[in-house]
Amino acid sequence: MQNINEEKFYSISAANGKVIEVAGEDSANGAAVQLRTNEQKPSQQWKFQEAGDNSYRILNRLSEKVLDLISGGTTDGTWVHQWEAAPADTQKWLIVSTTDHKNKLVSRAAGKCLDLVDMNTEDGARLQIWADVAGDNQQWTIVEVAEESDEKPEEKKKQVVDRMLETVKPDGKLVFVDYHRRSHWQPIGWILRWVNAKLEPFAEAL
Questions:
Q1: What whole-number distance in Å separates Cα of residue 162 and Cα of residue 164?
Q2: pTM of the prediction?
Q3: In whole angstroms, what is the distance from residue 140 CA to residue 66 CA?
Q4: pLDDT, tens digit, for every residue of 54-74?
């Protein structure tokens, strides 16, 4: 089974690279879940929360609601939507690894696989559950979302410096200490790292 970090978010993509999302960035119970070109939006990112017996609830980053079977259905063709988390097997999914780093997502309640309605792979294609079959329509690639760096953006750095300059008196001075990417041969580099960690932890982010 694929290794999952419960603290991370993941994209879940079909064979053509399109990802599972909550339609229209909707946060309401019952909102549609569909396939869409990956735009790296929060509505296209999911967290896997352990739900016992090797199963997971699959929680949307934007809405904080989970993948769920409409009306608690367990038959072939039951569509998938989002709903607030509840202690129900219709919200629990098993990750079953197949080949080439792909997976099937199997409903704990139904024993059926997450599947594309009518094998449609276009934007807006709806999701359902269906008996396990061979085919790309039940194969999913789960990839960890790369988070933004903790480093301050250039615009933010400029704002910080501008505010500092505004506080300097006409005859005053402002001293900058450059902590940026010390050379590996810097003889006191290890001392600076210790000082930064103990006394100036903010410095490593500047």
A1: 5
A2: 0.72
A3: 17
A4: 999 999 999 999 999 999 999
